[in-house]
């Protein structure tokens, strides 16, 4: 059988025997997208990206939704990504995925005028200490904070993300050296408003804002992800926030079919970009099911109208 779209997940979520609230959310989200695509008259199925029995040449497009083991299996995933790209097309496009999967993209957006946190990148294999990296950030990059965030350039779900206070720099030296030996890392100023006010996730489909949520860290934590006890709330943004999110999307190398723009008030009180997610973002369709229909129509109109 041939398909118009295959919705991509990871093997843990294909047919899970144990259904926790987290897994139930994943299944509900993917089902909303699948049903919305079918309502557009499309042939749709859902597969794990590493399914050894699926022929990727039998689908016109692959839609990345819940491939949330990719950063733990990055080398394997990268090989699959390259091979599958020769057999089918991706939503979002292959070039956008390659650009967005590595947080070096923040440099490009900053150069395009998007406000981001003060950030420096430490490339894999760099022979530097954490103390010297922070000293250089203060001298050359305008860092003024005394608390820092260290995280990988390719990551998700706050993997290897550390909050480092001034008096903890030496304590984190060993883990810093271990991480930099394995992968590129990024160091940012800690953003206190993310903890006090939360982070806003803005969904933008084909350039148009659809809905938003507010993510709040649990008391005593700095990570807003629900993996670490963070909570998610419906949120109605103002026009300034919507305009900022749309400007971020427009600064990407090409307009994505779907994007999630995570924004917050930086330490100077200005709206700033935490992340632009155009690869496999959680999009909270369960809080706004109509958005799944908007995405499905955008996919049909922009990707498949000439093929149907």
Structural account:
With 308 residues, the chain is an alpha+beta fold. It has three domains: 105 residues, Rossmann fold (3-Layer(aba) Sandwich), CATH 3.40.50; 72 residues, Dna Ligase, domain 1, CATH 3.30.1490; 86 residues, D-amino Acid Aminotransferase, Chain A, domain 1. Helices cover 32% and strands 25% of the residues. The protein has nine helices and 13 strands. A five-stranded antiparallel β-sheet has the order 11-10-9-12-13. Strands 2-1-3-4 form a four-stranded parallel β-sheet, covered by helices on one side. Strands 5-8-6-7 form a four-stranded antiparallel β-sheet, covered by helices on one side. Helix 2 links the parallel strand 3 and strand 4. Helix 1 packs across helix 9. The radius of gyration is 20 Å and the shape is globular. About 2% of the residues have low confidence.
Mean pLDDT: 91
**Tally of contiguous helical segments:** 9
N-to-C SSE string, H for helix and E for strand: EHEEHEHHEHEEHEHEEEHEEH
**Whole-number radius of gyration?**
20 Å
Instruction: Give the spatial strand order of the biggest sheet.
Output: 11-10-9-12-13
In terms of per-residue confidence, which ranges show pLDDT below 50 for 5 or more consecutive residues? 220-224
Oligomer: single chain
């Amino acid at each position: 059988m041939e398909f118009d779209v295959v919705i991509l997940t990871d093997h843990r979520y294909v047919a899970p025997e144990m259904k926790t609230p987290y897994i139930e959310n994943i299944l509900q989200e993917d089902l909303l997208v699948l049903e919305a695509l079918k309502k557009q008259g499309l042939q749709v199925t859902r597969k794990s990206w590493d399914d050894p029995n699926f022929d990727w040449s039998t689908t016109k497009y692959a839609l990345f939704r819940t491939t949330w083991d990719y950063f733990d299996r990055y080398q394997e995933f990268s090989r699959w990504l390259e091979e599958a790209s020769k057999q089918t097309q991706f939503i979002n496009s292959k070039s956008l995925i390659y650009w967005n999967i590595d947080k070096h993209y923040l440099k490009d957006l900053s150069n395009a005028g998007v406000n981001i946190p003060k950030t420096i990148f430490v490339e894999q294999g760099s022979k530097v200490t954490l103390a010297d990296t922070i000293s250089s950030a203060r001298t050359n990059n305008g860092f003024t904070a005394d608390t820092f965030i260290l995280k990988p350039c390719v990551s998700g779900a706050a993997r290897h993300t550390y909050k480092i206070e001034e008096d903890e720099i030496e304590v984190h030296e060993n883990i810093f050296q271990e991480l930099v030996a394995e992968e590129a890392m990024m160091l940012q100023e800690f953003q206190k408003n993310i903890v006090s006010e939360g982070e806003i996730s803005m969904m933008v489909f084909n350039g148009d804002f659809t809905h938003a949520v507010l993510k709040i860290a649990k008391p005593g934590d700095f990570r807003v992800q629900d993996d670490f006890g963070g909570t998610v709330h419906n949120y109605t943004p103002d026009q300034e926030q919507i305009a900022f999110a749309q400007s971020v999307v427009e600064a990407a190398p090409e307009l994505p079919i779907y994007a999630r723009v995570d924004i917050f008030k930086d330490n100077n009180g200005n709206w700033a970009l935490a992340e632009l997610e155009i690869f496999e973002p959680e999009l909270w369709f369960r809080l706004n099911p109509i958005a799944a229909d908007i995405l499905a129509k955008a996919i049909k109109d922009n990707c498949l109208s000439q093929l149907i």
